[in-house]
# Entry
Amino acid sequence: MEWAIVDEELNPYVDGLFRKVDTALYGRVTYLGMQSYWPTVLTDPEASPRDLEHAHWVENVSKIVFSKTLSRAEWKNSRLVKDQIAEEIASLKQQPGLDLMIFGSPRLTHTFIHLGLIDEYRLFLNPIVLGGGIPLFQDIKDWMKLKLLEAKTFQAGVVGLHYQAVRQ
# Structure
């Protein structure tokens, strides 16, 4: 995602979001990409302090990968969920702890939207038109009402949006 703007103003804001999460949720493609990248940062002598801090966070956070095709999740603190997604998330929401957050994983996000599992959306609108890729909101059959909780404009032109899903 070389098009995404990340700068000195946006970094602390995003880091604050990570501190509120103790379970990272991934689809297969994003999980495999993260698994192949972040552990290498831990041993990279040229990694920035911020990247090292994030690499430690992602290495130690509880990770759930949702996939019907993977046979196992081998990354530290990872586990695989193949089916019964709604039941799994309902169970996780009943447990004490911090937030659950989907990282990337647009197809997993589609599944969560269709199952009504998303409580809040944190979106970062970058000042760029891609013209392709996987849409975030795809095949939505009924309209979804969202309540704006926060809108923050960053100097680089990125707008951070925080919405709460309003249940009908």
Remarks:
- The first strand starts at residue 21 and ends at 27.
- DSSP finds five helices and seven strands in the chain.
- The helical segments are 10-18, 28-41, 49-60, 85-94, 106-114.
